[in-house]
Amino acid sequence: MTGMTSTARPHLNRRLAEFGTTIFAEMSALAVQTGSINLGQGFPDTDGPEEIREAAVRALRDGRGNQYPPGPGVPELRTAIAAHQQRRYGLSYDPDTEVLVTAGATEAIAAALLALLEPGDEVIAFEPYYDSYAACIAMAGGTRVPVTLRPDGDSFRLDLDELRAAVTDRTRLLLINTPHNPTGTVLTREELTAIAELAVERDLLVVTDEVYEHLVFDDAEHLPLATFPGMRDRTVRIGSAGKTFSFTGWKVGWVTSTPDLVAAVRSAKQFLTYVASGPFQYAVAEALSLPDTYFEAFREDMRLKRDLLSAGLREAGFEVFTPSGTYFITTDIRPLGESDGFAFCRALPERAGVVAIPNAVFYDHREEGAPFVRFAFCKRTEVLADAATRLKSLADRSTEPTE
Predict the structure, then answer these.
(1) What is the predicted pLDDT for the residue at 245?
(2) Nearest Cα to 148, choosing from 374, 387, 360?
């Protein structure tokens, strides 16, 4: 009979069956349907520096990158990445053997995990985690072991004892994200020292997602784990241009590590995209050479936006965990009389005309994340001010007299 399949087996690979459509797609669709302000998905609503955009146009017109770029990335960008890390952190990488350009950090994470894991290997990741981590670990046949960051005052903190207890003889790799999405936590020197000592003691590889390296606020400092004793030769560093230069659609990321580790990641990466973003690679090479004043101004602009939205959220009745990094704010909805982040976020567009993301999607232990909701503040100041005004209706309604 036509239309019949020859097997009852599901079409989707069982390793990916749990993931389905992302919450970002659902909430972005809700934003469009309701005309709400979308503070869910983390992308800016303005472009980055005009001179960098023009650098991409110039590369296109000059015919640079319009055909397949070299597999490891164009030499100009690999050299710029190495120079940037040397200048910022004193980390020395050989552009020819220790730098790999990827289609954004998402591909870098996927390629690293596919390359470095065997089926059954355990991967420790901090919960809540960026949603692609779980999917990439699953695709590699690994087992994710979450270590939960928990509220401590107005921020989230890592329990080092819990981390140590999570390591077993099957642990292959630590997947570290700092500055941390979605909580905004920036790991301290003391925490990173302990992680480094643990990795060396248990002979673990470490993949570090550092895409928000230039977005740290107040007294926080981003310290690459690769700079700690014994860590350069066991750490795969992942960076990205999208978050730093506000060109998220260009999808230019990179990996830096030892020649052996980079070669391993490249072996997986070449069968994912092979290459991508040719002309944009030349533009990002110029962006990485921008003066420190650019990075300082970018960070200060985001700090002011953080403070604007934080104040609005507090006025609306949320408990706010002040982020030390990234461009996300995690809030607790329980002071509003709510406890289910999914239900709250699905109702928020109709209630207040704003879209947010329930943090529970970033947890294996959903109950741990149930009352937390994430807002992105990488938007224009007037948009954030409008969102704050709309959200105030939540507090206004909670104080209305009952019949």
Answers:
(1) 97
(2) 360
In this predicted model, what pLDDT tens digit does every residue of 172-208 receive, in sequence order?
999 999 999 999 999 999 999 999 999 999 999 999 9
Q: Please tell me the distance from the alpha carbon of residue 365 to that of residue 163, in angstroms, as a whole number.
A: 16
Report the half-sphere exposure of 138 (CA within 13 A, side-chain side): 13
Integer Cα distance of 119 and 143 in angstroms: 8
For residue 166 the two structure tokens come to 């999570």
Instruction: Spell out the residues 6+ positions from residue 23 whose beta carbon is closer than 8 angstroms to its own.
Output: 131, 357, 358, 361
DSSP classification of residue 227: G
Measured CA to CA, the distance from residue 68 to residue 235 in angstroms comes to: 29
Contacts (Cβ under 8 Å, ≥6 apart) of 230: 196, 199, 200
What's the predicted TM-score (pTM) here? 0.94
Residue from 208, 175, 176, 214 nearest 325 by CA: 214
Is the pLDDT reported for residue 401 higher than 50? no
CA 229 to chain centre: 25
How deeply is 256 buried, as exposed, middle or buried, from its count of CB atoms within 10 A (0-12, 13-18, 19+)?
buried
Angle between helical axes of 259-269 and 104-116 (0-180°, round to 10): 110
Query: Which segments of 221-338 are extended strands (E)?
Result: 235-240, 253-256, 319-321, 328-332
Residue type for 208, please?
T
Q: Which residues have CB under 8 Å from 77's CB, separation 6+?
A: 101, 252, 254, 281, 282, 284, 285, 288
For residues 368 and 182, what is the distance between their CA atoms, to the nearest angstrom?
14
Q: Which residue has the tokens 């149930």?
A: 370
375 strand-pairing partners:
329
The H-or-E segment that residue 344 falls in is helix 341-352
- The amino acid at residue 101 is V
Count other Cβ atoms within 10 Å, centred on residue 259.
Answer: 12
